[in-house]
Queue: 2 jobs
Job 1
Amino acid sequence: MGEAAESARRSSGGDDSGVAEPERAGVEDAARARRERGIAMMKQVYGWDIGDVHGDFVEVTVDHLFGEIWANGEMSVRERRLLLIGFLLGSGQDDVVGLQLDCATQIGELSIDELRELVLFIAHYGGWPIAARMNAKVEELAARQRHADRASENTDAADGEDP
């Protein structure tokens, strides 16, 4: 049983002595499935593996936020990300916006042109200062992508040359 689940059991006054073995196994199977779903969803959202999941905060993030909320199928990852970007911008969490923009473009969920369109939309509903901060992040991301593309082209060209 994970630390978060064990903590929840203790805080609820739960006692394993009255729980039948098959019921306990079912609860553990459900928790394991939620953990696996959360890890898979985090990889889908961010494009990388989270690795080991330790500590209550990380367990709740993986198991609940990603294993239940992001994975519930009511909205697509793209829809959730667009909402999240808007919320993060509106609440001034610019550092986290950069992570969302990077991940969205890395996994092919949003293009630079779509992000530029989002900047224009945000400018009208969220204000020019917020949109200007996002625009700076989008253009920085676009420049990094252009640089990576040129480096890749140079590597490909060098690989194709005869010695």
Job 2
Amino acid sequence: MRVRSLRLLLLLLAAGWCVAEHFLLRSAGQTRRKQTPPKTVAKEDSFKTTVLPFITENCAACHNARTSKGGLNLDAFRSTEDVSKQRERWELIAQKFQSGAMPPKGMPRPDARQIKAVGVWLDSLFAKLDRAVKPDPGRVTARRLNRVEYNNTIRDLLAIDFKPADDFPADAPCVRANEADETAATDGLRLRA
């Protein structure tokens, strides 16, 4: 009878491990999805009154659909959503006009207040986009239970006083607190045992 219950117990544990592994991998996969920037419409009026006139007056002569100097077509950006989809490009654009690299020498310089207003608008948009992105917790590490945790789990799940972990290989000694995860990681020897 004890052998039969032990087999049943091991079968239940294997099924439980497969289910837990499935959920761990699924949750890790969900955090790796490509995160798309959220749609932003709150600053649309500010974009049309501050950024769009600045682009039209200072940038559109060289960076339009026809000439597209430097491979940059600013005619394509007509809304806040268009800007939020191309954040990396707009960070570079902001860096160029705040450092004075754009407009190039020989072209009329925009007023410092205009440059600051566009920079403030971009910074606020980027801050809003950063707040909307869900943090990525990283990879979920599957770790094994030590012998005491394993016995307690069996006792709590099955409501029987059975200590299968007493027959398992001894737990690796843990010297420092930060080694706890390393000693609990599964290795081939422990999986075969």
